[in-house]
Design goal:
DNA integrity scanning protein DisA; 12% strand; elongated; alpha+beta
């Protein structure tokens, strides 16, 4: 689901390997020095500056490194185009609490809370870089740690994808026998939601990897191929809510992690709400399985379901009944019969990319 950009993700992108700002930070660390960088425009930063000098010089990593040799802060504008101040003595409000012990980090935290702008504290003793913004505090991780985290996430996603495939493969024969219960649908959706949530976590780590993200990003794309589409088709097959499947999937993706653990909460957006509905089998319309039939357009699938009904009825329909549906000639009728017969007998009828 599309939403507002997370500014913290933008900060991680600004400080990712391969960016000018990260280049400056890495050079400061390599020199064994510390530093304090404030990313804020003049009208925001100015009231907090008690001393220092204005530069209005072009932003370059080399210039930042040289200016960071002074004890106080370097202030750059939010577009990272201009160095506004050097050796700036920042004086935040003393009433703002701080949990930090070092002077540089304490000032960074207080300034970030007061003006809600990105402040970067570089520790020469601990060789660490900490980002502050409002109440948010984040310590940048080294590349090796990020690669390990991404690798673990991708391994879990690979396992989830295999499990999702098994659930979908087992679901197909039940659809022909009208023995699909809400619990079956909830189990499939739950596994897909786990994958989508983990995908967001991995994507965040990929942002931190910067220029090193290409290979794991390709792996992630392969693992997630077809998951959202499969969710929408499954919802379309079993929903009683009149809303479009895309809207229902968006609502599912917005569920809190603790709600994803509850089948009744997962089924609620589909319109399955009462105890009786939760205990009764649900007929499958067949959009998911019919979409796997080669060269069968969506428009024809919709007409087929509208005129014949659920997937089990389509499977039992005669060649003549299929031929009567506009857009289905003899070749397509044979393809439908052959494909549905395979799905009924347990052959894979799952996501694109398997």
């Amino acid at each position: 689901m599309e939403g507002k950009k997370d500014p913290r993700l933008e900060f991680l992108r600004l400080t990712a390997p391969g960016t000018p700002l990260r280049d400056a930070i890495d050079r400061i660390l390599q020199l064994g020095r510390g530093g304090l960088l404030l990313v804020a425009n003049r009208e925001v930063a100015g009231p907090l500056i008690a001393a220092g000098f204005e530069l209005n010089a072009p932003f370059t990593p080399q210039a930042i490194v040289e200016l960071a040799k002074m004890d106080r802060a370097v202030v750059v504008n939010e577009e990272l185009e201009t160095i506004l101040y050097a050796n700036a003595h920042l004086v935040p409000s003393p009433t703002i609490p701080s949990q930090e012990t070092g002077t540089r980090h304490r000032v960074a935290e207080q300034v970030a809370r007061e003006i809600e702008r990105l402040v970067i504290a570089i520790s020469e003793d601990r060789h660490r870089v900490t980002l502050f913004h409002g109440e948010w505090r984040y310590e940048l991780q080294d590349i090796q740690t990020l690669f390990v985290r991404v690798s673990q996430g991708l391994q879990i996603l690979d396992r989830y994808r295999r499990e999702l495939r098994e659930l979908l493969t087992a679901l197909a024969p039940l659809e022909f026998e009208r023995r699909v219960f809400p619990s079956h649908v909830a189990a499939v959706l739950q596994r897909a939601l786990y994958m989508m949530e983990l995908e967001r976590d991995v994507e965040r780590t990929l942002v931190e990897l910067g220029v090193h993200r290409e290979l794991p990003e390709r792996h992630l794309t392969v693992l997630m191929r077809g998951v959202r589409e499969e969710m929408e088709l499954l919802v379309r097959d079993f929903k009683s809510d009149p809303r479009p499947a895309e809207e229902i999937v968006d609502e599912l993706l917005a569920l809190a992690p603790e709600d994803v653990l509850r089948p009744d909460v997962i089924l609620r957006p589909l319109g399955i709400t009462t105890d009786q509905e939760l205990e009764e089998p649900i007929p499958s319309r067949g959009y998911r399985l019919l979409s796997k039939v080669p060269r069968l357009p969506v428009s024809v699938i919709e007409r087929l379901i509208e005129e014949i009904g659920t997937v089990d009825k389509v499977y039992r329909a005669s060649r003549r009944q299929l031929d009567r549906v506009k857009g289905i000639a003899e070749a397509r009728a044979r393809a439908i019969e052959f494909s549905l017969s395979r799905f009924k007998n347990g052959y894979t009828g799952t996501m694109d990319g398997f």
